[in-house]
Amino acid sequence: MTVLVSYVPTPVGDAAFDAGLDEAARRGENVVVVNSPHGGATVDADLVDEAHAQRLSERAEQRGVTVEWRRDAHGDDVVDVVQRVADDVDASLVVIGLRRRSPVGKLLLGSVAQRILLHVDRPVLAVKAPA
Amino acid sequence: MDYSSVIQGFSVVLQPENLLYCFIGVLVGMLVGVLPGLGPAATVAILLPITLNVEPVTAIIMLAGIFYGAQYGGTITSVLLRLPGEASSVVTVFDGYAMARDGRAGSALGIAAIGSFVGGTVSIVALTFFAPFVARFALDFGPPEYAVLALLGILLVASVGSGSRLKALVAAGLGLLLATVGRDGFTGAERFTFDSLALTDGIDFVPIAMGLFGLGEILYNLEDRSGRATAPPKMVRALPSKDEVKQSSGAIGRGSVIGFLLGILPGGGAVLSSMAAYAYEKKRSKHPERFGQGAIEGVAAPETANNAAATSSFIPLLTLGIPANATIAVIFGALLIQGVTPGPQLITEHPDLFWGVVNSMYVGNILLLIMSIPLIGIFVRILRVRGTILAPITVLITLIGAYTVANSVFDIMLVCVFGALGYLMKKFGFEPGPLVLAFVLGSLLESALRRSLILFDGDPSGFVTRPISGVLVLALVIVVAAPALRALMTRRQNRAKNEELV
Amino acid sequence: MSASHEARTPEELAEQWEAEKPPAAGPLSTAAAAAVVVLLGAAVMVASFRLGVGSVQQPGAGLWPLMIGAFLVVSSTVLVLTARRFDDAERFVSSSWLVLVGLGTMVLFALVVGTIGFEIPGAVLAFVWLRFLGKESWRLSTIGAVAMVVAFYLIFVLALQTPIPHLF
Fold first, then answer.
1. Taking every annotated instance into account, which residue ranges of this chain make up the domain DUF112 (chain B) (predicted)?
2. Sheet harboring A2-6: ordered strands across?
């Protein structure tokens, strides 16, 4: 069993990563980080570069947790990738970050967090950014 | 040389409208160079309709700006993302990306901008002195010379192009065929019109260029061939140091010369010259092992050369009326639509246009130098826009643009047909460039050939006995025979080697 | 798909590009394309004779097309015969169907733009390209298609006043 963290390089994403790390250490499990770029993009701001990923992996290493990075590209919905990877690694827990969206932003893009909470058939831990 | 018309040219460039279009051209060119998918020929083709409502000189100033702006735009993605935006920046990837990985992206892009500026400027100065000389020489050309010259141009582009030579020749043949559609200018007979009224005046150049280059590329990109996405690159805004500039000054100088010389040759152009300049720098370096590990000369040389070549490839267009590569062929088409036939008379009959375009390149190169570094952040941002969102926008611009040229729905259909043809050609390994080039030269070639035959009273030996056309025929023979000879030689060498082994 | 190994040297990079190239179709597809051109060239030659070739002293309308037709026949025949040396054609893949769909939306645009204006076919084209060819979300595709048509209306109809047929 593994703890799955859906990660984007923002404060919320870091909060989710830390929470996932805590949870994995407590359960004695490892972490799979999903960092999925949008298919067809040349540059995706949600993607982490090698150095950044290395730093996070080392942080986990110090706590005895190994991290596997998954960078499968997603099509119209990142939730599909989260579900697929969760099935793939038989995740015991999915950790996501929550952030406030303006009503307009929600109309345009919808809420990924909401769809993960409702549609992924695993326990989900939702984390807020540190105030 | 008539200096007053050179100076007159500057006054043309400095008109606010021309300055604005030069700026737009360079900016659009850089943008398109950054965005993957559309090459410079496709961009120039898609933007052709815009140029129809402005003065010819303004139109060409903008299109030329797109052309050399795209050269630099391709550099940005080569260095930062290891993705050559244009074919002419492929070799820049090796050292440019290695430099970026070491945190020297700013140096690499800075030296590329300086090199582009120097290469472009050297090329313009050389063009200023060289072009009038060529044009004067070409004034004596009659139909036989033009026939051989056009044929030579098509053959050179076909033989130096990137793909297979034979396939390029077949594509060129198709281009010549398409150029015959419509009423024959000599006899008035209708050829290959299939009794369609819309085809009586022949096929317009715009739908062919827009379809083959523009829609063809977009359709081709629909097949999922997008590579992996990358994280946003970290931009270190450090300009090249004095030492780095000094270190690459030799490469910039040699790159300018190589670029200028190879740019003049039909089929040479930016791609070939960037590769030649890189190979030459590596060869003459005392430490060739540094290349590929972040040698600044490995960025300076090809980037200087491709810009110098982009500039000098205007020489055969403006002096002989022979486009040297696919993008220049589209610019040639734009001039024809404007009612200007490029050729040796251009410099005397339209000095304002000739010198306006030439001198606008100084301004364009200065704009390129000023804008390149500060705008990199914005370009990287634009890269985040997905191709899937850009594609429908480009398609709609193309379809609506095709309509506005002649207010004809038939032209939209033609664009679709040539878009499909362009896609199929790419799939089957045929380059569309030679087709478009042969199409623009087709009617010139035919009328020159028929005039010559009438002139010679049907005796084709006249092509050989006239001195200039004789020399050109000789060049033609060399172009045709050289690759075959080379193939024969290597085969013989291989055989000799094999025999030694036995 | 884990973190990809980064190519370091130009040789590795060239290898990586080679590996990412689309699947080659083999010589048969080059031969087939060339055979089509041979037939085209032959048809052009026949048609050129009908146009009247004239004489070398007085070339007719068909002389030049006849030469082109002959050139096409000869060069493509050589291509058919040497096709096994070519591997630069690409195989059609499952996503090639997307190209046909994309082309279909363009032809539809061309067919109806004269009667009902560019807005509806334009929006349909943009929507199909975003949603089905680009695999964007329903939401983004709908909003994007409408936004594009509005933008084009503002630019081409109101600002540039081009005579593109429009409904509103």
1. 19-437
2. A67-70, A30-34, A2-6, A91-98, A124-128
- Domain ranges in chain C? 1-93, 96-159
Alpha-helical runs (H) found in C9-159: 10-20, 27-51, 63-81, 96-116, 119-128, 138-152
Q: What is the complex's ipTM, to 2 decimals?
A: 0.91
Radius of gyration of chain C (CA): 25
Chain C: partners with 3+ C-beta pairs within 8 Å? A, B
- Torsion angle of the four alpha carbons B316, B318, B322, B328, in this order, in degrees rounded to the nearest 10: 90
Residue in B81, B224, B234 nearest the CB of A42: B81
Q: Report how many domains make up chain A.
A: 1
Backbone dihedral region for residue A90 (phi beyond 0: left; psi -120 to 50: alpha; all else: beta): left
For residue range C45-91, what is the model confidence (pLDDT) as tens digits?
A: 999 999 888 888 888 889 999 999 999 999 999 999 988 888 788 88
Give dist(CA B53, CA B383) in Å, integer: 31
Residue where the block lists tokens 């190879």: B262
Helix (H) or strand (E) holding A28: none
Could you tell me the CATH number of the domain that includes residue A14? 3.40.50.620
**A39 contacts chain B (CB < 8 A):** yes
Interval B227-245 mean pLDDT: 77
Which residue of A lies nearest to B35 if distances are taken between CA atoms? A42
Q: Which helix (H) or strand (E) holds C131?
A: none
The total number of residues shown for chain A amounts to: 131
Say how far apart CA C96 and CA C89 lie, in whole Å.
14
Q: How far apart are the first and last CA of chain C?
A: 50
The domain tally of chain B equals 1
Q: Cα separation of B256 and B273, whole Å?
A: 10
